[in-house]
User: What shape does this take?
Amino acid sequence: MPAPLRREGTGWVFTVNSTVLVIGDGSPTEAAVQALQAHTVYWVGETARPGALVKAYPDSTVVEVRGQRGHFRVKLAGAKGKLWLECGNIVLAPRLLSQLDPSLVLPLSCLILPVSRAPLIPAQERQVAFYLGEGENEGSFSSVTALNAAIRWAEHGARVYFFFLEIKVAALGLEDVYGKARRLGVRFFRLADPSALQIFAEGQLLRVHYRDTSLPGLPEFSFAVETLFAGEVYRPGPDFSHLADILRVNRDRWGFLQADDVRLFPVRTNRPGVYVLGEVRGPGYATEVKLEAAAIAGETAPFLSGEIVVPKVLARIDSSRCSLCLNCYRNCPASAVNIDYEAETAVINPLACQGCGLCAADCPAKAITLPQFEPLSDQRQGKTIILACENSGHLAARSIPLPLTWRAKLEIIPIPCAAWVDEVMVLKALSQGALRIVVSACRQESCRSSSGNRRVEEKVLAIKERLKTIGFNPGRIELLRSSANAPQEWQTRIAEIITGDEVIVEVGR
Amino acid sequence: MNEVVVAERKPLAEILEMIRHYQKVLVVGCGGCMTVGLSGGAREVSLLAQEMILARQAQGVVLSVSESTVGRQCEDEFLEKLAEDNEEVEAILSLGCGVGVQAIAGKYPKLPVLPGLNTRFIGQPAGEGVWRESCRACGECILDKTAGICPVTLCPKGILNGPCGGSKNGYCEIGEETPCIWEKIYQRMANTGHLSELELIFPAQDWSKAQGPGTVARRKRRFEQGK
Assistant: This one.
């Protein structure tokens, strides 16, 4: 591991860099720079401005990131050439790109504006329309802005028509906003069939024509409006995937820079020391940037002292065995591994290592150990061994008493993460007499080490195939997903697996 | 670090057949290419050991397996430690490449030495868990003249003045998984401003150098005993 400063009673003390790098523009970035005012901040963004402790790099972009939390080295490229910066933490807050909702069918007309422009247009006594499309199903991109604008126009005596498919009012206060718009006389049309809405240019105006197929009599509506505000959707900017690749940060299914994992909320990523703020997490998060910025400042505050204590070294590489195969370096979900080419070994940085054990399970030279978790040993005749993740199954197992009859049948062993399970340990346990191995992992989108509970699924399937080839019952390895706060459910699932065990225990097959 | 000799584990059934007469077997891994290539390192040794033990258990028979991984199987000195603690071993199962199997067999000629792997080719990683052949060890490297892309290995016909008439839309006539390598060579030459090199005509390849078994001798550094 990188050399610690000293050892204290509480653990290993490392010197760290207290500077924070902030990447982005707009209100999330401003909130971050504001919240981090106790730190030296390097701000990379088009609108970056220098401040008391803020150094601005408006003409540069990030091209490479090395190192870990406490010691990032970031390469910038810009008009003035290349530059390396050092920082302890990184905050990502780039803006989303907005575009008109692609589900809307609109003519080309200068009378059509995006909803985001509505607050800038002075309200007058006119006829205006709002049109929100299917994009609102992904998230309330435009409804809040559109409703507030509709209210403003209605208050100024305008006649407002509001066409939509869905308005989700789950955000705080939104139900009241909708109610107010209704009371002010905004006319809402919920579109049963969006294709029945037609908009076309008519002289100096726009004609909006709608035939409602859900009401009796199939009534038709026709309005001439001076302005139409069209709904928008927010998409990750093209720089998002670039940033994600450089920073090795996982994205969610739409490309936003925070994976769908409840353990990351609100501001973390799979990579310790790299934070996300605001829209970059997803469009629904644009409204809480101040809170999120405060959360980030809370996490970076300990770095101001210049020292961080790591209580325990969670994973260690034996350099004499390391073959530099680069597996751990490539696969670590926290990017906690560095390669020391001179010493010809991989090295784990304890400031970023989360102790999931994925590296140890995959290391072809068996060079990596987790000191707190010993490999399985001992005879385990006839028992079902439950390898229970300490973030879910093991907590569930401990929180209510187990049935007495289970004590003789089961052995429950804590594991750091399902990622730590490897084929050799499972087969060895079986060859030493275990009846069955159950891997109790966290649920999808709930893994503390990001990828552990997905990889374990591949491993369990591979072990089942091997057992079949050997002539063993593939049911002797099972995967169970659970959460820490559902102990009764956990017991029920275990009971289902071990019921009928007596029948299987014949001839060791 | 060596280039990677890429090998694949033989199917378990074939290995079990090889060791059917033995009750005590030593499995030997290799810390070089086989570790990096995830085919015969310490982990794969342990895995195979457990598979064999379990398979025999399923037949109601006990198999004793010991495990060892050496730095490289192709060096005599590294193989010396196999003799320790393994006096009663009846057979050695090597998870090295063909070189390693033969080296162990040469060092311990009285023991059956069995190959646990099929050696495939010299290659390079092309993604997680994927290796692709890139060098055929033909003995007459022309990579300086082909923009660093080897047509001897990567062209299914091994032609030197390609492409042939079967090149279509950038792919070989064999199928759409195989890019036409001469088109790639052309593209790289064009992108780097060296297109004129394409006009070089290669004479027929001298395959005698690729014909085995080959020997390379560096006269000034022999390590024979007593010299």
